Amino acid sequence: MKPLLSAWSWIFLIAILVFFEIYARIETGQTFLFRVYNIQSIAIAASQILLLALGLTLVIVAGHIDLSIGFTTGLAAVVMALVIRAMGPDTGWIVVVLAMLVGIFAAVIVGLLNGWLVAILNVPSFIGTLGTYGIARGGALIVAGGATVSIRSEEARTFGNGDLLGFPIPVVVAGVLAILCHYLLAHTKFGVHTYALGANRASVERAGVNVKKHLIWLFVISAVTAGIGGLIYTGRFSAGAANAGEPILLYAVAAVFIGGASLTGGQGTVTGTVIGAFIIAVIQFGLVFSGLPPYWQFVAVGLVIIVAVLVDQSRDKLTGTQS
């Protein structure tokens, strides 16, 4: 029973892929999965979710939450667009890279604020990051003048919509970040401390780990990955918007828990988050493919979140029984 619960996200992903493939064959006589356009659309949607969910995975494994990532994404997107606009329409790669760095810097500030609230002032992460959610949202709207900041930059557009070796750049960026986060969490001392912090903070402190510094780093990483999502958004749509990441916040949190993270911390993997992001992306695209209105996506993802929580509780009960 326990192996099935541990692998349920893989099983569920395969099940929904088979379901939509059968549906497509019956209703349209065409394939759902074996079309390049469908695969690319699902991969791009999953990459959008991943860019917010990767850093969040580390925070949740450590037993905390970061609700500010949605508007951290928006803040980075707006700042990047404002820098490019300030430099004029004939921007080159140097200006675009500079704008990206400034956007990431804005995201880092949010991460540092989160870390200061949670690690130094001992504010519960749910409350602290909910506060910075509002600060980042208001800050993005203020600097953007309450409007979407449109830009004209072929280089930025290429970054958001171009290909690299035949793969969409957003997918490549998300893939590289996923590999880096996986290595950090699964193969370094930093990752060991992160798991231990989520399982038993007191034991980590007794082991001499600087918990406050570690927490600050976790929230900075979460902010940076979310900020990169904002850079991709600005490139894709040639505009920066304060609410760029707001619709994805729910999906990012869902991807982490669907992927096997525990509500109490100490469990979770980047690989699981990747699977969770693809589950949500397949549901999104599959429902649109089926002709259902887009708002059914929220219902479907909400149901999957409930299932993920029930699986987590069942796994904890089974582990407790066996121990």
How would you describe this structure to a colleague?
The chain is mainly α. It has a single domain (12-19, 37-311), classed as ABC transporter involved in vitamin B12 uptake, BtuC, CATH 1.10.3470. Helices cover 76% and strands 2% of the residues. The protein has 14 helices and four strands. It has helices at 2-6, 8-27, 36-61, 69-86, 93-120, 125-143, 154-161, 169-187, 189-199, 201-206, 211-237, 246-258, 270-289, 296-322, and strands at residues 149-150, 163-164, 167-168, 239-240. The chain has a two-stranded antiparallel ribbon with strand order 1-4. A two-stranded antiparallel ribbon has the order 2-3. The radius of gyration is 20 Å and the shape is globular.
Shape: globular
Largest sheet: 2 strands, antiparallel
> What order do the SSEs take from the amino end to the carboxyl end, as H and E?
HHHHHHEHEEHHHHEHHH
Radius of gyration (Å): 20 Å
CATH architecture: Orthogonal Bundle
How many domains? The number is: 1
* Average pLDDT score: 88
- Which secondary-structure class do the elements indicate? mainly alpha
Distance between the termini: 15 Å
Beta fraction: under 5%
* Number of helical elements: 14
Low-confidence segments, ≥5 residues, pLDDT <50?
Answer: none
State the CATH class: Mainly Alpha
Properties at a glance:
323 residues, mainly alpha, ABC transporter involved in vitamin B12 uptake, BtuC, two-stranded antiparallel ribbon, 14 helices, 4 strands
